[in-house]
C-alpha cells in the first residue's frame, strides 16, 4: 500500500532527490535472535566503584566527592526521516543522564554507522541529515558534540556517549530513595513502538489488512506524528523539575518497557518497597490496535519497548501534583500519576488490569 507521505505533511524522499520508495527503516532489519547472540556477555564486568543497575555509570574520581557520570546508547533508525532520527538519537542518549538528575552534560560524543548497502546518493544524504539532527538537538540541550566515531556498517545506526563531572547531591541524584506512600509520575505517553510499527505496516498489504477495519490511515499517521513528537522531545525540563520537587529517584522508560524499568528502579531502592504501576497513558489509537491484535505487543502488561520514552519519577503525592502542573506550564505537555510505591520486596509490577488513558494529543 503506497502512502503519499507528502500529502500528510511527513518527510518525503522525493523532496531530497531520493526515489519515492526509499524507506530508511528498510535498512535496519537485524534478526532479534542474532542481536541477542551479539549481546551475550556484554556488561558483565563491573568495577568496584561503579554502580550497576542504574541508567548511567557512576564512577568515583580521584578527587573527593567528585564523580564521573556517563552513558552510551545507540540504535538503528525507527523512522524514515534521518534528520528527525538524529534528534531522537540525541534525546535517547541524554535521557539516561536526565534520569540521574544530570541537567548539565559536559561532553557528548556521536557514534555513527554509515550504511554501505545504500547507493552513494542516499548514503551521503542520510549521513549528513543524521549528523545535523543529532547536532541540532545537542544545541537545544545546551551541550556540544565534541567528537565521536564513524564506521562503515551494513545498517545505519546513530547514538552517542554523554559524560558529566558531578558532585553528589548537587549535580546528580541517586535513584534509591523511594518511600512507601510515594507516587510514580510518567512524563511521556506509551506506545511509540506500536505507533511506528503501524506506520510501517501500511507499506505491506498483508500486514495492513490485519488492522484495516480497526484503525484508519489518518489515525495511524496521527499516532506516528505523536510518537515522533514524543521521541524527539528532550527530558531536560522533566529532569530540572525533579530537583525542585524533591524527587526520590527516577529512571527513563525505554527498551525494557514500563515493567522492566520499574522493576530495575525498584531493585535499587534502599527501603524494602515495590513499585506498582496501575495506569498506562497510551498514544491515541494504539489501545484498540493492541486489543485487536490480542495484546501482541504486551503493551498493557508494560513489556512493550519504548524509544526515547519519558521519565518515571518517585515523589510524594503533594509534590507530584505540583510537578505535573508546572511541567505542563513549562513544556506544554502532560504528565501523569501512573502508580505508587508500597511496602514490599524491591519488585516492580504492572497490575492485572491497569487503567488505560488514551492520549489524544501531546
UniProtKB/TrEMBL annotation:
InterPro entries: PurM-like_C_dom (IPR010918), PurM-like_C_sf (IPR036676), PurM-like_N (IPR016188), PurM-like_N_sf (IPR036921), SPS/SelD (IPR004536). The keyword Kinase applies. PANTHER family: INACTIVE SELENIDE, WATER DIKINASE-LIKE PROTEIN-RELATED (PTHR10256:SF0), SELENIDE, WATER DIKINASE (PTHR10256). Keywords: ATP-binding, Kinase, Nucleotide-binding, Selenium, Transferase. It comes from Blastocystis sp. subtype 1 (strain ATCC 50177 / NandII). Residues 55-162 form the PurM-like N-terminal domain. Residues 179-350 form the PurM-like C-terminal domain. SUPFAM superfamilies: PurM C-terminal domain-like (SSF56042), PurM N-terminal domain-like (SSF55326). This is Selenide water dikinase.
